[in-house]
Design a protein that fits this description.
Distance between the termini of chain B: 58 Å
Helix content of chain B: over 70%
Strand order of the largest sheet of chain B: 1-2
Number of helices of chain A: 19
Shape of chain A: globular
Structural class of chain A: mainly alpha
Order of helices and strands of chain A: HHEEHHHHHHHHHHHHHHHHH
Number of helices of chain B: 22
Helix content of chain A: over 70%
Largest sheet of chain A: 2 strands, antiparallel
Structural class of chain B: mainly alpha
Number of strands of chain B: 2
Largest sheet of chain B: 2 strands, antiparallel
Number of domains of chain A: 1
Largest interface: A-B, 30 and 33 residues
Strand content of chain B: under 5%
Oligomer: heterodimer
Chain lengths: 478, 532
C-alpha cells in the first residue's frame, strides 16, 4: 500500500513546503522577516533526495504517475530550477514589495505541478498538472499589481494560455473518443493498431494536442505570448517560467508524442519539422531586433525551444537524451542570465534595456563576467555547457538524417551569437552610464549565480556523467 | 608515465592567468599594472621555454605523432582528450609560444586600461591556440578552435582602436559562420565511423583510415575548407581580416597575423586534405586558383593602402595565398614550403605589426602620409624595420625566401601556369612593401612632429630583436626547421595521394630538404629584382 505512493513523494515534499509557506505567511507580522524561501529550499532538497532514492526503480503510483528515470531526470532539472529561482527571488521580493509567502507558495505549487506533468502517464493527469502549474505562473506573472506592464502580461498570458489549454483538452477528448482511454500506453497500442489506416479523427486529435504543446513550449507560430509575458513578469519569475514551464512541457511533449503517438510519426514528423525550423529562425531573427534584454532573452528562449524540438524530432536514443540534457543546460544558463537581470534591477527602474548594461564591467566586473559566461553558454561557445548541449542536439539530428534542420540550427545559432554579444559589447566596450544604479547583490543571489556559473563550466568541461545519466534516463522507457 | 608536456603547455598559460588574479592592487595603479605585466611576461616566457624543451626532445626523423597523451573524455561518443605533435604542429606551437611574449611586450605601454584583464585574455588565448595545434581529436580541436574566438574578440573589442566593436563582432561572426558547418561535418564523420565500424570516434588517427564515400567527401571537404578558408583568409572570404587587423591593439594584430591565420592553413594540412583525399584532389586546383587570385588581389590592394596596418593586413592575404597554393600543389615541395612559409609569415608579419605598433605608439597615427624621413630621426628603428620588411618580401638570406621558393617550385610541378601567376605576387610584394618603406623612412622629414621621435627603447629592443634573430636564423639555417617538417609533410602527402588515386605523383622522388643552392636563388630572384 505504502509503496503505491512512492512515485509522488517528490512532489508531495514540494507541495508540503508550499503549504508551509502559505501558513507561515499567515502567521507573519507585517514587516517581520521570515526565511520562507528556506522552507522552499528544504522541500526541494527533500524532493531531490526522494527522487535520488527512486532512481532506477520505475515506481508507479495509481497507474498514472510514473517515477521512471525519465521523469526523475526532469524532476531534478525542476529542483535545480526551483533552488536557483529561490536564490534570485529574495531580492525581487524585497525590491518590488511582493507578498513573500504567497510568492514562494505559488512558486512551489508551480514546481509541484511541473513535476507531476513530467511524471504523468495519463493525458487527463497531464492536463491537470498543466493547469496547476499554469495557474500558479499566471499569478506570479501578475504579482506586481501596481505595474501596468505586469498586469498586461499576466492577462495576455492567461488568455492565450487558456486557449491553449482548451485546445489541449479538446485533443484529449478526441483521443479518448478514438481509443476509449486517456492512458498513454493504451492510447499508444490502439494507435499502433490503427496506424495502417489513419482516420481524420486521429489527425484532429494529433493536431489539437500539438497546438496545445506548441503553446506551452512557445513554438512558432504559437509563441506570441512569450515576449510580453517575459518582459512583464519580475525577472526572477521570468527566469523561473522560461525554464521550469519549458522543461515540464517538453517532458510531457516527449512522453505523449514519442510513446502514445509514435505510431503516427509519419504524420506529425513533417509538421514538427516545419515548426522546429520556424521556431529556430523566428526566435533568432526577431531576437536580433530587440533592445530590451528580457525580450531578447524571450526570443532566445523561443529559439532554444526550437533546438529542443529538433532533438525531439530526431527521437533516436541520442535525441531523447539530448532533450533532457539540453533542458538542464538551458535551465541553468537561462536562470543565471535572469538572475543577473534580477540583480541589476534598480529600485525605481528595471535597468533591463540593452543600453543599461553599458560599461557594467567597469563598475561591477563580477556581475559582468558572470553574465558573459551565461551569454556565451547560451550562444554555444566551448568550454561552456551550452556548447555540449548544442553539440548533443546536432549529433542527434545528424544521426537521424535531419541534415537540413541541423544546418538551419547551426546557422541560427551563429545569428543568435550576434545578439548575445550585443550585451557583451555593451558591458565591456562602451562607457558606463551614470544613471544606472546597481543595488548590492544579496548573498542568496550571489551563491545561486556562482553555482550556476560553476555548473555551466562543469557541464561544459566534464559532461560525461550527466550525459550518461541522461542516456540512462531514456533507456528504460519508450 | 611520461611527463605530460603538451598538457602542461596548454595548462600553463591558463594557470598563469589565474595567478594574475592574485596580484594585489587595483587596475590603473601603476605599480599593480607593472607587476601584472611582468608576471604575465614571465609566464609566457616559461611557456616558450617549455616549447623549446618540447622541440629539443622531439625526434625530428619520425613522422609519427609524439608526446601523445590520451584520456577518455566522453566515452559514449568515442571522444577523448588526445594531444600530440608532429613536425608541423611542433613548429607552430613554438611559433605561438615565441610570439606571445613579444605581443605582450608590443602592447606594454599602449594598453592603459584593465591591464590585468588584458594579460589574462592574452594568456587564455595562448592556451587555446596551443590546444588547436596539438589536438588529435576532432571534438577537442573544435572546442579549442571555437574557444579561441572569445579571447580574441575581447582583445579587439576592448583594447582596439576606434571601430573596434564593428571589427570584433565581424571577426567572431565570420569565423563562427564558417566553423559551425565544420562542426556538422565532424559529426557526420563520427557517425560514418559508427556505421562503418560500430563505434563512434572523433579520433583523428582513426578517422584518417576511414573510407568516406566520394559524394560525402565532397560535402565534408567543403564544410571544412570553408571554415579554414575564412580563417586563412582565402579570397573571397577575407573581408573580415583588414578590419580585425587594423582595429586590434598591437598584441592582437601580432597574434592574429602570426598565429590565428595559420590555423586555417594548418587545418587544411591536418584535417581537410588527409581526411577527404579524393575531394581534396578534386578541389585542389580550385583552391589554387583562389589562392592565386588572393595573392595578386591582396598585393594590388595593399599597394594602394594609405594606412600601414591595412597594408600589412592585405599583404597577409597575399602571403597566405602562397601558403594555400603550396598546400594545393599537393607535392612535397609545396607542402613543406607552405608549412615553412606559415612560420615565416608569423615571424615577419608579427614583426611588421610590432613596428607599426611602435610608430603608432609614438605618433598615434598609422597613415603613411603622416611619416617620412624617419631614417634620420630613428636610425635603429628604421634598421630593424628594413630587415623585417626584407624578410617579408623574401630576400634571400632571410626567412621569407626559402618558403616562397619551395612553394613556387611545388606549384610549378603541379601546374607551371600557377607558378607563373604566383610569381607576379612576389614582385608585387616587393613593390608595395618597399614603396611603403620608402615613403615612411626616406626623403626629408615632412612633419614637424616627427623630428623629435625617440629611437628604439630597451623594451622595444626586447620585442623586436628576437624577430630579427629568427628571421636571420630561418633564412640561413632553413634545415633546422625543414627537417622536422619533412617527415610529417611526407606522411600527410602520402595519405592524401595514396587514397585519392594519384599514386603516380606520389611515386615521384622527393627532393630532400633544399639547401638553397645559390644558383637557384638567383634565377628566382632575378625576376623580382628586375621589377624593382
Amino acid at each position: 500500500m505504502t509503496t503505491e505512493l512512492n512515485a509522488i513523494v517528490p512532489m508531495a515534499c514540494v507541495t508540503a513546503a508550499g503549504i508551509a509557506a502559505m501558513v507561515a505567511e499567515a502567521f507573519r507580522e507585517p514587516g517581520e522577516r521570515m526565511p520562507i524561501g528556506g522552507l522552499g529550499a528544504v522541500g526541494l532538497v527533500g524532493a531531490g533526495i526522494a527522487s535520488f532514492l527512486l532512481w532506477g526503480r520505475d515506481a508507479v503510483s495509481f497507474g498514472v504517475v510514473a517515477a521512471d528515470n525519465f521523469g526523475l531526470f526532469v524532476t531534478w532539472i525542476l529542483i535545480v530550477v526551483g533552488l536557483l529561482s529561490l536564490g534570485f527571488s529574495a531580492t525581487t521580493i524585497d525590491r518590488e514589495r511582493l507578498p513573500g509567502g504567497e510568492y514562494y507558495a505559488l512558486m512551489l505549487f508551480a514546481i509541484a505541478g511541473m513535476m507531476l506533468m513530467a511524471t504523468a502517464t495519463d493525458l487527463l493527469l497531464i492536463f491537470l498538472a498543466l493547469e496547476v502549474l499554469s495557474l500558479a505562473v499566471y499569478v506570479l506573472t501578475g504579482l506586481r499589481r501596481s505595474s501596468a506592464a505586469a498586469t498586461e502580461a499576466a492577462l495576455k498570458y492567461f488568455l492565450l494560455g487558456a486557449f491553449s489549454s482548451a485546445f489541449f483538452l479538446y485533443g484529449i477528448a478526441f483521443t479518448y473518443g478514438l481509443t476509449g482511454s486517456t492512458r498513454l500506453d493504451r492510447v499508444g497500442s490502439l494507435m499502433a493498431a490503427q496506424a495502417m489506416s489513419p482516420t481524420p479523427m486521429q489527425f484532429v486529435a494529433l493536431g489539437l494536442l500539438l497546438v496545445g504543446f506548441a503553446f506551452k513550449v512557445a513554438a512558432v507560430p504559437f509563441h506570441m505570448w512569450t515576449p510580453d509575458a517575459y518582459e512583464g513578469a519580475p525577472p526572477a519569475v521570468t527566469g523561473f517560467m522560461s525554464t521550469g514551464v519549458k522543461a515540464a512541457a517538453f517532458a510531457a511533449f516527449v512522453r505523449v508524442f514519442l510513446s502514445a503517438f509514435e505510431p503516427l510519426r509519419n504524420d506529425w514528423a513533417p509538421v514538427l519539422w516545419i515548426v522546429a525550423a520556424a521556431t529556430m529562425i523566428v526566435g533568432t531573427v526577431v531576437g536580433v531586433a530587440q533592445l530590451n534584454v528580457k525580450r531578447m532573452l524571450a526570443y532566445s528562449s523561443i529559439a532554444h525551444g526550437g533546438y529542443i524540438l529538433l532533438a525531439l524530432l530526431a527521437s533516436n536514443d541520442v535525441g531523447k537524451a539530448a532533450v533532457l540534457f539540453y533542458l538542464l543546460v538551458y535551465a541553468i544558463t537561462n536562470l543565471g542570465a535572469f538572475g543577473i537581470i534580477a540583480a541589476l534591477e534598480g529600485v525605481d527602474r528595471p535597468n533591463d534595456r540593452v543600453a543599461d548594461y553599458a560599461g557594467l564591467w567597469y563598475d561591477h566586473p563580477r556581475l559582468a563576467a558572470l553574465m558573459t559566461i551565461f551569454l556565451l553558454s547560451l550562444g554555444g561557445f566551448p568550454p561552456t555547457a551550452g556548447f555540449i548541449a548544442k553539440w548533443y542536439v546536432f549529433s542527434a539530428a545528424v544521426k537521424a538524417g535531419y541534415n537540413g534542420l541541423a544546418i538551419i540550427g547551426v546557422l541560427t545559432s551563429v545569428v543568435s551569437v550576434f545578439f548575445y554579444l550585443r550585451i557583451v559589447v555593451m558591458m565591456y566596450m562602451t562607457q558606463p552610464d551614470a544613471d544606472v544604479q546597481v543595488p548590492p547583490v544579496s548573498r542568496a543571489a550571489g551563491i545561486a549565480l556562482a553555482v550556476s556559473a560553476a555548473l555551466v563550466f562543469y557541464l561544459g568541461i566534464l559532461p560525461t556523467r550527466v550525459l550518461d545519466w541522461a542516456a540512462a534516463s531514456v533507456k528504460t522507457i519508450f | 608515465m611520461a611527463f605530460p608536456i603538451l598538457s602542461t603547455l596548454i595548462a600553463l598559460p591558463i594557470a598563469g592567468s589565474l595567478l594574475l588574479l592574485l596580484v594585489p592592487g587595483r587596475d590603473g595603479d601603476e605599480r599593480h599594472d607593472a607587476m601584472v605585466r611582468n608576471v604575465a611576461l614571465v609566464v609566457s616566457l616559461l611557456v616558450f621555454a617549455e616549447s623549446l624543451l618540447l622541440w629539443s626532445r622531439f625526434t625530428t626523423t619520425s613522422a609519427d605523432f609524439q608526446f601523445v597523451e590520451r584520456y577518455r573524455w566522453i566515452p559514449a561518443f568515442g571522444i577523448s582528450y588526445a594531444v600530440g605533435v608532429d613536425g608541423i604542429s611542433l613548429l607552430l606551437v613554438v611559433l605561438t609560444a615565441f610570439l606571445t611574449p613579444l605581443a605582450l611586450l608590443g602592447s606594454w605601454t599602449s594598453v592603459h586600461k584593465k591591464t590585468r584583464a588584458f594579460c589574462m585574455t592574452l594568456l587564455v588565448l595562448e592556451s587555446a591556440m596551443i590546444g588547436v595545434f596539438v589536438s588529435l581529436d576532432l571534438f577537442l580541436f573544435y572546442v579549442f578552435w571555437d574557444a579561441m574566438l572569445v579571447p580574441m574578440y575581447f582583445l579587439i573589442g576592448i583594447w582596439g582602436y576606434d571601430r573596434r566593436i564593428y571589427a570584433a563582432v565581424k571577426f567572431i561572426l565570420y569565423t563562427m559562420a564558417g566553423s559551425v558547418l565544420m562542426l556538422l561535418a565532424i559529426l557526420g564523420l563520427a557517425y560514418l565511423h559508427n556505421s562503418a565500424r560500430g563505434v563512434y570516434s572523433f579520433d583523428l588517427l582513426q578517422l584518417y583510415t576511414l573510407d568516406v564515400p566520394p559524394n560525402l567527401q565532397f560535402w565534408f571537404f567543403l564544410a571544412f575548407a570553408l571554415a579554414f578558408a575564412i580563417k586563412v583568409p582565402l579570397f573571397p572570404f577575407h573581408t573580415w581580416l583588414p578590419d580585425a587587423h587594423v582595429e586590434a591593439p598591437t598584441a592582437g594584430s601580432v597574434i592574429l597575423a602570426g598565429v590565428l591565420l595559420k590555423m586555417g592553413t594548418y587545418g587544411l594540412v591536418r584535417f581537410a586534405f588527409p581526411l577527404f583525399p579524393q575531394a581534396a584532389a578534386l578541389m585542389a586546383p580550385a583552391l589554387a586558383v583562389l589562392a592565386i587570385v588572393g595573392i595578386i588581389y591582396g598585393a594590388l590592394v595593399a599597394m594602394v593602402q594609405p594606412d600601414m596596418k591595412k597594408l600589412v593586413a592585405y599583404s597577409s592575404v597575399s602571403h597566405l595565398g602562397f601558403v594555400v597554393l603550396g598546400i594545393a600543389a599537393m607535392n612535397i615541395q609545396g607542402v613543406q614550403g607552405a608549412v615553412y612559409q606559415m612560420l615565416n609569415h608569423g615571424v615577419s608579419t608579427g614583426g611588421l605589426f610590432l613596428i607599426v605598433g611602435m610608430l603608432s605608439d609614438r605618433r598615434h597615427t598609422r597613415l603613411i602620409a603622416e611619416y617620412g624621413g624617419l631614417k634620420k630621426v630613428m636610425p635603429r628603428l628604421v634598421a630593424v624595420f628594413l630587415i623585417v620588411t626584407l624578410s617579408s618580401i623574401g630576400l634571400p638570406g632571410l626567412n621569407g625566401f626559402v618558403g616562397e621558393f619551395l612553394i613556387l617550385l611545388g606549384a610549378f610541378r603541379a601546374n607551371p601556369r600557377f607558378a607563373a601567376f604566383a610569381a607576379t605576387g612576389v614582385i608585387l610584394s616587393a613593390a608595395y612593401m618597399l614603396w611603403m618603406f620608402q615613403r615612411v623612412n626616406y626623403g626629408p622629414v615632412t612633419k614637424d612632429e616627427n623630428r623629435s621621435l625617440p629611437d628604439l627603447q630597451p623594451r622595444e629592443w626586447l620585442a623586436i630583436a628576437p624577430i630579427v634573430a629568427a628571421a636571420v636564423l630561418m633564412g640561413v639555417f632553413p634545415n633546422l626547421f625543414l627537417r622536422p617538417i619533412e617527415p610529417a609533410a611526407d606522411r600527410m602527402l602520402g595519405q592524401v595521394l595514396q587514397r585519392s588515386g594519384r599514386e603516380i605523383h606520389a611515386a615521384m622522388p622527393h627532393v630532400s630538404p633544399p639547401v638553397d643552392p645559390p644558383g637557384r636563388t638567383l634565377t628566382v630572384r632575378s625576376s623580382g629584382d628586375a621589377a624593382r
